[in-house]
Design a protein that fits this description.
single chain; about 170 residues; mainly beta; five-stranded antiparallel beta sheet; 10 strands
Length: about 170
């Protein structure tokens, strides 16, 4: 019987690089992911005894209901490692109705159906951050310095070609 040890789980995205996800998820906060982000999951593991026909079964729950289960054939692995596998990228749900907390459970299964490892994580799909505010710089004023003046000192806007000074 093969022995399987999961060493690391990471989330990768072109937008924000790679984030390692804690393997100890008891009582932890869900990982926040922006809606519509394209995410790839990477696993690092070791195998003792070798396994031919390793499968990953992934079950997703939302609101306590199973919304999908997928099985991915990972292949055969000799004794040793660490091995790193990166799953194909996947787009996170989009729209307010899909925002919320999802629970994902991954099970690594031997060809005989024996569960070698199980890992569960919670993810919270959040709206993307608002776009950055546009710059308030006016065009045509580059290089022109405007000094602040008191109301009694006269207008704060200089006459073209001059720079006001305060005394």
């Amino acid at each position: 019987m093969a022995q399987f040890e999961l060493l690391d789980v990471a989330l990768a995205s072109d937008g924000w690089g790679t984030r390692t996800v804690s393997l100890d998820t008891r009582g932890g906060k869900p990982v926040a992911l922006p809606e519509g982000a394209v995410i790839s999951v990477a696993f690092t593991f070791q195998v003792k005894g070798g396994v031919d026909g390793l499968t990953l079964e992934e079950t997703r729950r939302y609101g306590g209901q199973v919304i999908g289960t997928t099985r991915t054939a990972l292949g055969g692995f000799r004794t040793g490692g660490p091995y790193e596998l990166r799953l194909p990228p996947e787009r996170m749900p989009v729209a307010r109705a899909n925002c919320g907390t999802y629970e994902v459970t991954g099970r690594f299964i031997a060809p005989d159906g024996h569960e070698l490892a199980r890992e569960s994580h919670r993810f919270r799909i959040v709206p993307p951050p608002p776009p950055a505010a546009p710059s308030r710089r006016r065009s045509g004023t580059a290089g022109l310095t405007v000094a602040a003046t008191r109301a009694s000192d006269g207008p704060a806007v200089p006459t073209p070609g001059t720079v006001p000074t305060t005394t």
